[in-house]
Design goal:
Layout (H helix, E strand, L loop, with lengths): L3 H14 L8 H15 L6 H10 L11 H14 L4 H14 L12 H12 L3 H14 L17 H5 L5 H7 L11 H25 L4
The chain binds adenosine-5'-diphosphate and nickel (II) ion (NI).
Pfam family, one: HD
Protein name: HD domain-containing protein
Length: 214
Amino acid sequence: MSSTIISETEQWVRGKLSHDTSGHDWYHIERVTTLARYLCKDTQADEKTVILASLLHDLADDKLIDDEEVGRQMIATWLRDKHVSKEIIDHILLIISTMSFKGGTGSPMETLEGQIVQDADRLDALGAIGIARTFTYSGHKQQPMYDPSLPTREDMSVEEYRHGQSSAIHHFYEKLLKLPALMNTPKGMALAEERAQYMKSFLQQFYSEWTFKK
Ligand code: ADP
Ligand code: NI
Protein backbone atom coordinates (compact mmCIF):
# COMPACT_ATOMS: atom_id res chain seq x y z
CA MET A 1 0.00 0.00 0.00
CA SER A 2 1.55 3.30 -1.01
CA SER A 3 1.46 6.33 1.28
CA THR A 4 -0.23 8.44 -1.43
CA ILE A 5 -3.38 6.59 -0.51
CA ILE A 6 -3.17 8.23 2.93
CA SER A 7 -2.92 11.74 1.52
CA GLU A 8 -5.65 11.01 -1.06
CA THR A 9 -7.91 9.65 1.67
CA GLU A 10 -7.18 12.74 3.80
CA GLN A 11 -8.28 15.01 0.94
CA TRP A 12 -11.40 12.95 0.28
CA VAL A 13 -12.52 12.92 3.95
CA ARG A 14 -11.64 16.59 4.39
CA GLY A 15 -13.92 17.44 1.47
CA LYS A 16 -16.78 15.40 2.88
CA LEU A 17 -16.61 16.75 6.44
CA SER A 18 -15.56 20.36 5.88
CA HIS A 19 -19.06 21.75 6.57
CA ASP A 20 -20.00 19.58 9.54
CA THR A 21 -21.14 21.38 12.70
CA SER A 22 -22.13 18.32 14.78
CA GLY A 23 -18.67 17.73 16.24
CA HIS A 24 -17.56 15.41 13.43
CA ASP A 25 -15.70 18.00 11.41
CA TRP A 26 -12.38 17.39 9.67
CA TYR A 27 -10.38 18.63 12.66
CA HIS A 28 -11.89 15.86 14.83
CA ILE A 29 -10.66 13.35 12.25
CA GLU A 30 -7.23 15.00 12.17
CA ARG A 31 -6.90 14.92 15.98
CA VAL A 32 -8.04 11.29 16.16
CA THR A 33 -5.52 10.33 13.47
CA THR A 34 -2.70 12.11 15.34
CA LEU A 35 -3.68 10.43 18.63
CA ALA A 36 -3.91 7.03 16.91
CA ARG A 37 -0.43 7.46 15.37
CA TYR A 38 0.90 8.23 18.86
CA LEU A 39 -0.80 5.17 20.41
CA CYS A 40 0.46 3.02 17.54
CA LYS A 41 4.12 3.89 18.09
CA ASP A 42 6.23 1.06 19.58
CA THR A 43 3.45 -1.49 19.09
CA GLN A 44 3.01 -4.37 16.65
CA ALA A 45 -0.05 -2.70 15.08
CA ASP A 46 -0.18 -2.12 11.32
CA GLU A 47 0.18 1.67 11.04
CA LYS A 48 -1.50 2.07 7.65
CA THR A 49 -4.61 0.21 8.82
CA VAL A 50 -4.69 2.40 11.94
CA ILE A 51 -4.35 5.61 9.92
CA LEU A 52 -6.90 4.69 7.24
CA ALA A 53 -9.45 3.50 9.83
CA SER A 54 -8.93 6.74 11.80
CA LEU A 55 -9.44 8.87 8.70
CA LEU A 56 -12.55 6.95 7.63
CA HIS A 57 -14.12 6.13 11.01
CA ASP A 58 -16.92 8.71 11.01
CA LEU A 59 -18.03 8.42 7.38
CA ALA A 60 -20.43 5.59 8.23
CA ASP A 61 -21.79 7.14 11.46
CA ASP A 62 -25.57 7.48 11.59
CA LYS A 63 -25.14 11.02 12.93
CA LEU A 64 -23.75 11.95 9.51
CA ILE A 65 -25.38 9.56 7.09
CA ASP A 66 -28.95 8.17 6.94
CA ASP A 67 -27.92 4.61 6.19
CA GLU A 68 -24.70 3.29 7.76
CA GLU A 69 -24.57 0.45 5.23
CA VAL A 70 -24.41 3.01 2.40
CA GLY A 71 -21.51 4.65 4.27
CA ARG A 72 -19.67 1.33 4.58
CA GLN A 73 -20.18 0.58 0.87
CA MET A 74 -18.81 4.00 -0.05
CA ILE A 75 -15.69 3.38 2.08
CA ALA A 76 -15.21 -0.12 0.60
CA THR A 77 -15.50 1.23 -2.97
CA TRP A 78 -13.00 3.99 -2.23
CA LEU A 79 -10.43 1.54 -0.82
CA ARG A 80 -11.00 -1.02 -3.57
CA ASP A 81 -10.40 1.69 -6.20
CA LYS A 82 -7.09 2.41 -4.46
CA HIS A 83 -6.14 -1.28 -4.71
CA VAL A 84 -6.17 -1.90 -0.96
CA SER A 85 -6.30 -5.66 -0.26
CA LYS A 86 -9.62 -7.29 0.63
CA GLU A 87 -8.17 -8.38 3.94
CA ILE A 88 -7.31 -4.80 4.97
CA ILE A 89 -10.63 -3.42 3.68
CA ASP A 90 -12.55 -6.01 5.73
CA HIS A 91 -10.46 -5.16 8.78
CA ILE A 92 -11.08 -1.40 8.41
CA LEU A 93 -14.84 -1.99 7.98
CA LEU A 94 -14.88 -4.22 11.06
CA ILE A 95 -13.16 -1.51 13.11
CA ILE A 96 -15.62 1.14 11.91
CA SER A 97 -18.71 -1.03 12.52
CA THR A 98 -17.55 -2.03 16.01
CA MET A 99 -16.85 1.62 16.89
CA SER A 100 -20.27 2.81 15.82
CA PHE A 101 -22.18 0.61 18.27
CA LYS A 102 -23.88 2.91 20.78
CA GLY A 103 -24.06 2.67 24.56
CA GLY A 104 -21.28 0.12 24.98
CA THR A 105 -23.59 -2.70 23.88
CA GLY A 106 -21.46 -3.69 20.90
CA SER A 107 -18.94 -6.48 20.74
CA PRO A 108 -15.49 -5.72 22.16
CA MET A 109 -12.82 -4.47 19.79
CA GLU A 110 -10.82 -7.60 18.93
CA THR A 111 -7.76 -6.33 17.08
CA LEU A 112 -4.95 -4.11 18.33
CA GLU A 113 -5.47 -1.73 15.38
CA GLY A 114 -9.16 -1.37 16.31
CA GLN A 115 -8.35 -0.88 19.98
CA ILE A 116 -5.98 1.95 19.10
CA VAL A 117 -8.47 3.77 16.85
CA GLN A 118 -11.26 3.35 19.41
CA ASP A 119 -9.02 4.77 22.16
CA ALA A 120 -8.04 7.72 19.96
CA ASP A 121 -11.70 8.51 19.20
CA ARG A 122 -12.59 8.28 22.91
CA LEU A 123 -9.70 10.58 23.87
CA ASP A 124 -11.10 13.27 21.58
CA ALA A 125 -14.35 13.08 23.58
CA LEU A 126 -12.42 13.91 26.77
CA GLY A 127 -10.48 16.91 28.14
CA ALA A 128 -10.99 20.52 27.05
CA ILE A 129 -11.78 19.45 23.48
CA GLY A 130 -14.27 16.89 24.79
CA ILE A 131 -16.02 19.59 26.84
CA ALA A 132 -16.21 21.89 23.82
CA ARG A 133 -17.51 19.12 21.55
CA THR A 134 -20.19 18.13 24.06
CA PHE A 135 -21.58 21.67 24.27
CA THR A 136 -21.41 22.01 20.48
CA TYR A 137 -23.28 18.75 20.01
CA SER A 138 -25.91 19.65 22.61
CA GLY A 139 -26.49 22.99 20.88
CA HIS A 140 -26.83 21.17 17.57
CA LYS A 141 -29.47 18.89 19.19
CA GLN A 142 -31.13 21.85 20.95
CA GLN A 143 -30.51 20.33 24.37
CA PRO A 144 -29.98 22.62 27.38
CA MET A 145 -26.41 23.02 28.67
CA TYR A 146 -27.58 21.91 32.13
CA ASP A 147 -30.79 20.96 33.88
CA PRO A 148 -30.37 20.95 37.68
CA SER A 149 -33.56 18.92 38.13
CA LEU A 150 -31.91 15.89 36.50
CA PRO A 151 -29.75 13.66 38.73
CA THR A 152 -26.02 13.47 38.07
CA ARG A 153 -24.42 10.32 39.39
CA GLU A 154 -21.42 8.68 37.81
CA ASP A 155 -22.85 5.23 38.49
CA MET A 156 -26.05 5.85 36.54
CA SER A 157 -26.51 3.66 33.50
CA VAL A 158 -27.06 4.97 29.99
CA GLU A 159 -30.54 3.36 30.12
CA GLU A 160 -31.53 5.41 33.19
CA TYR A 161 -30.64 8.56 31.27
CA ARG A 162 -32.41 7.49 28.11
CA HIS A 163 -35.78 7.74 29.88
CA GLY A 164 -35.57 11.45 30.18
CA GLN A 165 -34.30 14.62 28.64
CA SER A 166 -30.55 15.05 28.77
CA SER A 167 -28.19 18.00 28.78
CA ALA A 168 -24.57 18.69 27.94
CA ILE A 169 -23.54 18.33 31.59
CA HIS A 170 -25.49 15.07 31.87
CA HIS A 171 -23.61 13.62 28.94
CA PHE A 172 -20.46 13.83 31.10
CA TYR A 173 -22.07 11.36 33.54
CA GLU A 174 -23.93 9.13 31.10
CA LYS A 175 -20.88 8.53 28.94
CA LEU A 176 -17.74 10.64 29.12
CA LEU A 177 -16.60 10.02 32.71
CA LYS A 178 -17.05 6.28 32.13
CA LEU A 179 -14.56 6.26 29.25
CA PRO A 180 -11.26 6.02 31.19
CA ALA A 181 -12.30 2.61 32.59
CA LEU A 182 -13.07 1.36 29.07
CA MET A 183 -9.74 2.23 27.44
CA ASN A 184 -7.89 -0.57 25.64
CA THR A 185 -4.26 0.57 25.65
CA PRO A 186 -2.03 1.63 28.59
CA LYS A 187 -1.00 4.91 26.91
CA GLY A 188 -4.63 5.63 26.04
CA MET A 189 -5.71 4.95 29.60
CA ALA A 190 -3.12 7.33 31.06
CA LEU A 191 -4.21 10.15 28.75
CA ALA A 192 -7.88 9.42 29.41
CA GLU A 193 -7.36 9.64 33.19
CA GLU A 194 -5.62 12.98 32.80
CA ARG A 195 -8.34 14.37 30.54
CA ALA A 196 -11.18 13.08 32.74
CA GLN A 197 -9.53 14.71 35.77
CA TYR A 198 -9.57 18.04 33.94
CA MET A 199 -13.30 17.55 33.23
CA LYS A 200 -14.03 16.85 36.89
CA SER A 201 -12.38 20.11 37.90
CA PHE A 202 -14.40 21.87 35.18
CA LEU A 203 -17.58 20.40 36.72
CA GLN A 204 -16.62 21.63 40.19
CA GLN A 205 -16.07 25.14 38.88
CA PHE A 206 -19.30 24.95 36.84
CA TYR A 207 -21.38 24.01 39.90
CA SER A 208 -19.72 26.59 42.10
CA GLU A 209 -20.61 29.31 39.57
CA TRP A 210 -24.11 27.87 39.09
CA THR A 211 -24.85 28.01 42.83
CA PHE A 212 -23.12 31.35 43.42
CA LYS A 213 -24.49 33.26 46.39
CA LYS A 214 -23.15 36.60 47.48
P1 ADP B 1 -17.34 10.28 17.98
O1 ADP B 1 -17.43 10.86 16.64
O2 ADP B 1 -16.13 10.81 18.69
O3 ADP B 1 -17.49 8.80 17.98
P2 ADP B 1 -20.03 10.72 18.93
O4 ADP B 1 -20.58 10.56 17.58
O5 ADP B 1 -20.51 9.77 19.98
O6 ADP B 1 -18.45 10.78 18.96
O7 ADP B 1 -20.30 12.19 19.42
C1 ADP B 1 -19.66 13.33 18.90
C2 ADP B 1 -19.43 14.35 20.01
O8 ADP B 1 -20.70 14.74 20.55
C3 ADP B 1 -18.64 13.78 21.18
O9 ADP B 1 -17.80 14.76 21.72
C4 ADP B 1 -19.71 13.38 22.17
O10 ADP B 1 -19.27 13.41 23.51
C5 ADP B 1 -20.80 14.40 21.91
N1 ADP B 1 -22.10 13.82 22.17
C6 ADP B 1 -22.59 12.65 21.71
N2 ADP B 1 -23.84 12.39 22.19
C7 ADP B 1 -24.13 13.47 22.98
C8 ADP B 1 -25.25 13.85 23.78
N3 ADP B 1 -26.33 13.09 23.88
N4 ADP B 1 -25.18 15.03 24.45
C9 ADP B 1 -24.10 15.82 24.37
N5 ADP B 1 -23.01 15.52 23.63
C10 ADP B 1 -23.01 14.38 22.96
NI1 NI C 1 -15.19 10.15 15.82
